[in-house]
Amino acid sequence: NHQPKKNMATNILIADDQPIVRIGLTYLLSKEIDINIAGEASNYQEMFERLQQKPGIDLLAISMSLAAQDGYQVLEQLITRYPQCPVLVLSQYSEPHHALRPLGLGAKGYLDKTAIPTEFVKAVRMISTGARYINEACATKLAFLKRNGTSQPT
Q1: DSSP tally for the chain: helices H, then strands E
Q2: Mean pLDDT, to the nearest integer, of 66-89?
Q3: Which of 66, 106, 125, 130 is deepest in the core (most CB within 10 A)?
Q4: How far is residue 54's CA from residue 93's CA, in Å, rounded to a whole number?
Q5: Is pLDDT above 80 for 150?
Q6: Mapping DSSP to helix (H, G, I), strand (E, B) and coil, where does residue 63 land?
Q7: Which one has a higher pLDDT value, 1 or 142?
Q8: What is the largest CA-CA distance in the chain?
Q9: Is the Cβ–Cβ distance between 86 and 60 less than 8 Å?
Q10: Residue 90 DSSP SS3
Q11: Is the CB of residue 106 less than 8 Å from the CB of residue 79?
C-alpha cells in the first residue's frame, strides 16, 4: 500500500519513448513546488534501471507504448516488483476499454495524451495522495457504458 507523504514533494519518474513528451511533462511539472522530477526513461530497461538506482521514487508516469515489449506484461512486472510505487499510465487511446486493463492490473491512474496539461498535474497530485485517477473524458465514457450495461464502446 502506498502511504501518502505529508508536506514533502512527490518524486516522479517519467517514462515515455518520445523525447518531446518527456521534455514537455518535465517542464510542466518543474513549475510545481510540490512535485520533483526524479528522472526520465525512454524505454523499459532505463525505467527499471532508474527505479533500482533511485529507491525514493513516489510515482511513475509510464507510456504503454515504450519500446517493442508488451506494455501490459511490463506493467504487471512493474507492479509486482515495485508495489509501493503507484503507476499513472499515459496512453494515446482515449477509448474507455483501453483504460480497463491497466487499471485491472493495478495501475492507480489512466490519462490519455489528449488531456490538457493541468489534468496531468491533477492526476499526479491525486495519485500521490493515494487516490485513483481516470481522466475526465474517459471516465465519462466509462460511466455511460456502465449505465447502458455494455462492456465495449459502440
Answers
A1: 6, 6
A2: 86
A3: 66
A4: 30
A5: no
A6: strand
A7: 142
A8: 47
A9: yes
A10: strand
A11: yes
Q: Are 14 and 57 in contact (CB under 8 A)?
A: no
Residue with the three cell numbers 513528451: 21
Distance, CA of 61 to CA of 48 (rounded, Å): 13
Indicate the DSSP class of residue 65.
T
H or E stretch at 109: strand 109-112
pTM: 0.85
| Residue 56 DSSP symbol | T
User: What are the helix (H) ranges across 13-116?
Assistant: 19-30, 44-53, 71-81, 97-105
Three-class secondary structure of residue 79 per DSSP: helix
Residue whose entry in the numeric block shows the C-alpha cell 523525447 = 19
CB atoms within 10 A of CB 143: 12
Query: From the CB of residue 19, how many other CB atoms can be counted at a distance below 10 Å?
Result: 10
C-alpha cell at 153: 464502446
Grid cell digits, residue 142: 466509462
pLDDT digit string (tens) for 16-74? Answer: 999 999 999 999 999 999 999 999 999 989 999 999 998 889 999 999 887 556 788 88
Task: Count CB neighbours of 65 within 10 A.
Answer: 15
- First-to-last C-alpha distance (Å) of the chain: 36
Provide, for the chain, the percentages of residues in helix, strand and coil under a 3-state DSSP scheme, each rounded to the nearest 5: 45, 20, 40
